[in-house]
């Protein structure tokens, strides 16, 4: 096509048809501009397609993270419920008379002392933030939902950390005030072949038959704090689970829109 215009231009010059020459010269320019615009359009299309594929990849990774988070919340709720059941059972049985070391040790093995910290799957989100690619999520509403979800988790993680530190400090103070607590609260099977039976004396457990003693009442206080802590954690995990499910639903809708 360009050769065709050049040939006409040369003929026009020879024939001194200057006006026609200008027309065809302009045509050449227009042709070149159109070619550039087409090339830019193709390049922009390729770049846009590349970004869409990258966005889809990140959304899939976020979806996988949220699915793992949802499972994690369910497991955490189950564990917290188990702790509440076990520790409530202990508060009930602690008022029964303990007649032997074995009965005392069996009783002291009932409580659970979990202090789990909130740990979600946030590698994909952190990668998006650190690389400056958060804006690759083209749906602004979805992007804000992703940000809000992780901000909420960060806030709840701090709350869990503070409550855990408080409860563990109470337990540590109790152990410090009443030596031998760690020993008498361990499962005998865990210590088989390690501890000497003479380390366990009925005197160590006398407080269990004396509800008015400071050691008995202090243990009750610690147990009740752990129960209250995990009741709060259940509500917290349930809230986070609902948020993760909502965000999963939004991501699924975004996938459907792009199909």
TrEMBL record:
Keywords: Membrane, Transmembrane, Transmembrane helix. It holds the Pfam family DUF6090. The chain crosses the membrane at residues 21-42. It comes from the Bacteria. This is Uncharacterized protein. It comes from Yeosuana aromativorans.
């Amino acid at each position: 096509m360009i050769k065709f215009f050049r040939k006409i231009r040369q003929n026009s010059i020879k024939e001194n048809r200057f006006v026609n020459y200008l027309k065809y010269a302009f045509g050449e320019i227009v042709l070149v501009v159109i070619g550039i615009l087409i090339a830019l359009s193709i390049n922009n299309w390729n770049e846009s397609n590349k970004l869409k594929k990258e966005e889809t990849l990140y959304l899939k990774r976020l979806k996988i993270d949220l699915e793992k988070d949802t499972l994690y919340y369910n497991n955490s709720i189950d564990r917290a419920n188990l702790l509440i059941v076990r520790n409530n059972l202990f508060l009930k049985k602690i008022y029964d008379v303990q007649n032997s070391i074995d009965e005392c040790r069996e009783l002291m093995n009932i409580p659970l002392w979990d202090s789990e910290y909130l740990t979600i799957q946030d590698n994909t989100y952190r990668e998006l933030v650190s690389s400056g690619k958060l804006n690759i999520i083209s749906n602004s509403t979805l992007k804000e939902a992703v940000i809000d979800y992780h901000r909420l988790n960060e806030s709840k993680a701090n709350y869990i950390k503070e409550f855990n530190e408080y409860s563990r400090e109470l337990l540590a103070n109790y152990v410090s005030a009443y030596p031998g607590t760690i020993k008498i609260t361990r499962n005998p099977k865990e210590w088989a072949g390690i501890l000497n039976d003479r380390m366990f004396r009925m005197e160590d457990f006398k407080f269990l038959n004396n509800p008015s003693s400071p050691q008995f009442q202090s243990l009750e206080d610690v147990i009740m704090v752990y129960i209250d802590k995990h009741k709060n954690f259940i509500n917290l995990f349930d809230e986070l689970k609902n948020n993760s499910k909502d965000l999963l639903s939004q991501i699924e809708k975004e996938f459907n829109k792009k199909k």
